[in-house]
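Onboarding guide, step 5: your first structure request.
Type a short instruction followed by the sequence, for example:

Predict the 3D structure of this protein.
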Amino acid sequence: MFGARQAGVSSLVMSVLAATALTGAAFFTVSRVDCDRAPRYEERHGVTELVDSCLTAEDLPAPPRFRDRAGWTDRDEPKAPSDLHR
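The system replies with structure tokens like these:
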């Protein structure tokens, strides 16, 4: 019975140590960011934008390209219910 309790306590201690190490690593990483100013959100022309961020346009993925919806020809054709989920 004592062995099971000791295993539980050592598991708890190891979990707390791991959480402490990960928290320390997170704080170290955040403190090393080389931003001049803290980022903030501002509303400009009715759109909310992230301002003073360390991210640049090159850091973000490219937006998906959409087809020209005006070129679609099947919009006016009636569809069967089985065709709606294609």
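Each response can be followed by summary notes, for example: The two ends are 61 Å apart (CA to CA).
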